[in-house]
Known about the structure:
The complex is a heterodimer.
Chain A: E1 5-6, E2 12-13, H1 17-22, H2 25-48, H3 61-72, H4 82-111, E3 128-132, H5 136-146, E4 148-152, E5 156-161, H6 168-188, E6 191-197, E7 202-203, E8 211-221, E9 229-232, E10 236-245, E11 248-254, E12 260-266, E13 270-271, E14 283-294, E15 297-305, E16 310-312, E17 315-332, E18 335-342, E19 347-354, E20 358-360, E21 367-374, E22 377-379, E23 385-387, E24 396-402, E25 408-414, E26 422-424, E27 427-435, E28 438-451, H7 455-474, E29 478-483, E30 492-498, H8 502-513, E31 520-524
Antiparallel strand pairs in A: 1-2, 3-30, 3-31, 4-5, 5-29, 6-28, 7-8, 8-14, 9-10, 9-13, 10-11, 11-12, 14-15, 16-17, 17-28, 18-19, 18-27, 20-21, 21-24, 22-23, 24-25, 26-27, 29-30
Chain B: H1 5-30, H2 33-61, H3 69-91, H4 94-112, H5 130-158, H6 162-169, H7 174-197, H8 202-205, H9 213-235, H10 239-265, H11 278-304, H12 314-347, H13 356-377, H14 383-406
Amino acid sequence: MNSPVTTLAGNVSRKPKLWAMLSTMKFAIWILIVLGVLSLASLFSGELVDPLWMKQEPSGAGAAFGQLVYKTLEMDQPFSSWWYRGLLGVLSLSLFACVLERTPIVWRMWSRKPELDPRAVNERTAPIYITTSEPSKPLIDRLSKSLGTRADSDGVWVGESHRLALWGPLLTHIGLLLLAIGGLVGSFGGTHSRAGGYAGDIVAAEDMPFEVRIDSFRVEYYPFQPGQWVLVDGEWIGRLVERDSDNSWKIERRNQMGELELVSMEDEWISNDWDIRSTGGNIKQYISSVTVLEDGQEVLERQISVNTPLRYRGFRLYQSSYDPDNPRVITSYDQVTLVVSDTLGNVLNRLPLKQGGSVQVPDDSLTIFAGRFLPDFKLDSRRQAYSASGNMANPAVELLARGPNGYERLIWSFLQMQGHQITIGAHRFEATEIQNPNTTIGIATIFEIRRTIGTEFLWLGFVVSSLGLILCFYMTHRIVYVQSPSADIPLTRVYAFSKKMIRGFEHDLEAITKQNGATVEMTVQPEIVSY
Amino acid sequence: MAPSLDVQLFWFSFWAYLIGWLSFTIWLAARKPFWTKLGSISFAAGFIPQTIAFFWRWNHTGHFPMSNMYEYMAVMSWMAVVSFAFLTWRYKNWVISALISPVVIMLMVAASLLPKDPSQQLMPALRSSWLMIHVTLASVGAGAFAVAAAVSFVYLLAVRSEEETKRAFTPSFKIPMRVLVLIPVAIAALGGVSDALANQSAMQLLGAPMRNSNVLVLLGIYLVPAGFIWNYSFKKTPSVEARYWTAIAFSGLFMGALASGILLSSQTLALTSDSPLRIFEFFGVTLVFGTLGAFLLHTALGFGRVAGKLHLDGRLLDEVNYRSVALGYPLYTLGALFAGAIWAESAWGSFWSWDPKEVGALIIWLFYSAFLHARYQRGWSGPRTAVLSLIGFAMMMLSLFGNYFFGGLHAYA
Lengths: 531, 413
């Protein structure tokens, strides 16, 4: 593989052919074009082929071959397919090769001293070459206002601006490489799941070292506003025009003849959770109040809403959606009294227990946690407990007993069944005297739970490439050499170098040199870009 | 309901810019300073109310006014006016001003076709300070690409030597004749062959149930011979003429897109969400109107030979093209890609979801990256980079309106 490769400069390189190819600009351009074209084709493929077709039985040999091709190329998910990832990998390799190749070059350019030998620069290598009849001194004075003096010797003055811009392309490429690495690392690790529940429920996910208790969930709506489309009386659609009174609106609607008419309606007949322009209604925000629990202990209280996820111990919980179609009776209470008795029925302790709180049972290794309260306790077909209504028909409190060696037992204590005690070990337990029970109808909130790895690379990549882009495009490196054969002779030569914006540079130099009635000759060769 | 104040100001700006554009266009032919003065005053007179409209809307709706397509296009046109002012000041060349002024008009026309209702409330996902950063930077970047495309268009159309001008306009009528020959072919294909081939497309043979095979088959039938004839035509065509036709074709496509937009806006053409091939329906109309538009434009320019008489400085146009791309590329990268990714992580839980709009932005970014590499390292300039600028702008327009066809997470935009 280590065969010699002739570079553009005519030197013979001993780099491997593959490496030499990866580091060329031609290869980079091709891979960018190929990726762009295939991305476009993949975007359209979803429009052209029904993904369900993949799952159908092939109708013949042609169809079977088609499905084979489709499956092999993973066209149902083209952007996560092996070939697309492979191309992204090749682009990353090309970036890596480019960074390694360019770093010493940029370093050499950065640390290079300006050439002070008058013979070293000439009109053949300079994109802009100017001769002026003005002596060098006043010209240098004017030039030095826009270009800092880099070197000054007897015959040559060198001015330079925005030298930092030399690092722009390299930093941009390093940043992009970091983004590629971050993306690659992230695609091979991390977890992703969805979970949710009603107020009082506890959310857990695989590998997540903590639990989250949902304290409440609510949907916030925007107030009525003129111009808003609304559903009125559950029947017709109109547009709010203006407030008629404190509790009514003038609403514009079309009658059966298609004519516009104004109708006055009271607020209670106008639905604010519906909007013709958006499927989500006139919703302002979805807000879940949660408490983070570690080993049953409350450690953090937060609100999760769209754009404000909960970030905790490497995990992120997003307000993903909610379930308005399955409302549930949600209850809460301040505290219950936990009655602890011995096996003969003698009451030993009466312990106050707050909802979500816990208590250590005296002379026992058990800890009792207070859970949900259901006013009308029922079991569904899957033997899951729920409240059939908001009435106190069969109230019950959920208790969780935890003991050593991971022992756990969930029990329901029924408040209207006096003496209904559950025996665990040497003690019997019963919940009584519930304080301030509250019943509302609630809807489920749904979270997306993610743990992503490699994000440090991504953040660093964003910063480095942003910096690189700013240096690259908003700073232009410029060098100007001013030579004067002799202080007595009114002839000054100016050689100006820049890789970009030569016409703009020409305008600037024109403005600086054409002063004091000097005769100025200017030659511009924008095709000369190397220096 | 009467239009809101910002919409009334929008229309005032629209007419002011229109007068400005006409003034600059007349100046190109007449070269009297009066027209540049009138043009500048008109643009200033349009810019002030447009700026007031922007802030009024911001205050009125209570959120940064970049939450729908109308607001996006209006801000893009506002940015194009800023570019117009900057480049006029930087290069002190009225030709550049005259070339950029139609970009403003095009964007204002596009904005005028879109719903302008300011009462729309911001949906939860858009309630973020990233909205301002993401959309503003992306729209400024897109505005800069639009300026680059406008300058490139004129470069291709008008920059040539005297000799080239003579050659360019004489034989060019052959091409529209060839294009016209294709229209009956397309009609025949549409009318007669569709039934017979409806279920015989290549994809169908492979077993894929096409959602609408007729359109695809016909598109194929139309495009394959068109490609051959186009290729044949270009082989015998001097490069300058090819460049001229590239520019004409792009302007025709733009006019076609505009015509399609007007038809959509007037509800003559409907794109429904249950129509999976709506993108082809849209571009079918675009292509038909584009072909007609290109023909008309050629007739106007070809006979008048106005473009060849402008004697524009090609190197200057080339630099303005590059400068605009160089201004837009970092802004687009930072705004559309980086800020978008960071916001997506907050709102949707993932930096990148391969949403159609994200893929569109990535394609544009890849394209302009290739453009800049080709320019820096391969020395591409002049007509080559001008063609690339036009292709990039066409891709940007496709991405901008792409969510109408592809849906996805950006479907609300």
